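re: ur question from yesterday

yeah so i grabbed the chain u mentioned. its 357 aa long if i counted rite. heres the sequnce exactly as i have it in my notes:
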Amino acid sequence: MNIIEQYRPPKIEQEEQAELLSVIVTAYNIEAYVERGVRSVCDQTYRNLEIIVVDDGSTDATGEILDGMAKNDRRIRVIHQENGGPARARNVGIAKAAGCCIGFVDGDDWIDPDMYEKLFSALQDQQADIAVCRYRQVSKTGTVDGSIDRAVLFEGQEALAAYVEEREEFVIQNAAWNKLYRRTVLGENPFPEGVWYEDIMFATKALACAGRCIYLDIALYNYIIDREDSIMNRRINSRTFTDQIPAYYEKTSLLQNLGRGDLALTHDYFFYKRLLLFYWELTKTEDGESYRMRLEEILRHDRKRAEEAFEVPLADPRDRKNLKLFYRAPEAYCRKLRWDEQVAIPCKAFLKRLLHK
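ran it thru and got these structure tokens back, copy pasting raw so excuse formatting
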């Protein structure tokens, strides 16, 4: 891993923009947002784009808005299809794409004007297979931007490791949309269709295939975090068990098959830690009892693996104590987290404010 301070991807003048880039935009019932999202792609400083917009069975005016935009910009191609979910929509877009590199945008978000110029320039400059950038978290209450003026070059499986280790200083994560990919790392139909949380396996496979990744520690993508109908904003539900948890098990298997048992165990630490937190969150809901029982069943069935995972070097000792307490008595585990949330954490925050006055 090589940290490059104050990295500036070389400028690509319009007459030098010979390579075609494909940007796939997915849209479903987002008539209030879609024009802004697609317009932000049209306004890119890198002009040699094909913009494939997949209208995934919208029942509002989304499709009409897109057709109108396509009349005014020949680079836009609109595909109307029956609703099949974002994974199928992206796979359809990939099948139609002709560019050397592929990027993704969710139609209700928007991107900075120079996002694809910077990502593609960095990709070429560093001879990488994937270029990644930070993103801004946009909500009704404001915008969070953790940009740092630097870049990070990952060799081999270093980016995969940073992703699996959920290192907060590198905003790689599952998201497909803050990255630009060479076609060679995607393959055919890379998104598992018919399920939620399709990005989990997509991101793992793509990063595993990449020989080199360049990470730009600047925000170029604007992600709306508080849309009420967003999957990310939905509570724990049946899809947690039918889609999300199976995807995590599949991720473990993939890492093991890559010969990275160490990363598989690290992933499982975060996986089982997440299940413990799910269990705690469900105590705050009136209808969470059946889901808590299912989570307890999973955690008890996987106890040996979970205890092994919580011994990985980066595991927080406090998490290890919480796991042991859960296996001893789930009620005691919940009482402990309730104490932390209502008493211990507020007291620490109060003392910290006093010390800094």
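noticed a couple things. DSSP finds twelve helices and eleven strands in the chain. also The chain has a mean pLDDT of 94.
anyway ttyl
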